[in-house]
Amino acid sequence: MRFVFVIVAWAGLSASAGQAQELGITESLRGLSFARNGVTHTVGRSLSASDSAANLRAAIDPACPPSCVQPMQAAPGVVTVAELEVLEFMAGPVAEGTGLLVDARLADWFARGSLPGAISMPYPALSPENSFLPDILQALGARRDAAEWEFDAAFDLLVFGNGPASDMAGRAVRGLLDAGYPAAKLRWYRGGVIGWADLGLTLKEPAG
Fold it and tell me: In terms of domain of life, where is this protein from (predicted)?
């Protein structure tokens, strides 16, 4: 199944006095808007949005484990990205219908809020012990040819978790690689939801 996306970016808009709390993302980019499955998602930046990071951080067990600092690379061959690359991924593969933003956190974390346009794919679902893993791979565009999986038409995936002290995204990436997903089709956003919110970037509203 493929999705239909529409993308709109706006640049160089001047803030009015009533928008004093609104910040630019870069000097030339004020925000980004894109549609997925008929729902429009907007990414902007504001001082008030960074409050979400404190709320998320307060809910995390700071002990290691589970909150151990992660390396710069989730797995060999998988590119680590930062916020501007995430936005480029939204404006590129996501907008073109060839990429997906994957929130690898458990469902209760996803319900607290996520990156705009992200889908929930908790890392345990990508374990080889999950009997539904073949169905997930097929939903991602992989095709089985006899005993082998073929990934040429599969989505490019940008995977993220809570942040650099969370291993959920790394475990998801490694699960995908173990299933045969090509490293070239995977990206890891190490900053995660907390890094995104720390910069005041828009989070999708929590469920409920």
Answer: Bacteria
Phi and psi angles of residue 120, each rounded to the nearest 5 degrees, phi first = -90, 125
Structure tokens belonging to residue 2? 């493929």
Phi, psi of 144, rounded to the nearest 5 degrees? -90, 125
19 found inside a domain: no
Structure tokens at 8: 């709109």
151/98 Cα distance (integer angstroms): 12
158 within some domain: yes
The tokens for 114 are: 């996520």
Boundaries of domain holding 158: 49-198
- DSSP category for residue 145: E
Query: pLDDT tens for residues 20-73?
Result: 456 899 999 999 998 777 788 999 998 776 678 888 889 999 999 999 999 999
CA distance 9 to 43: 10
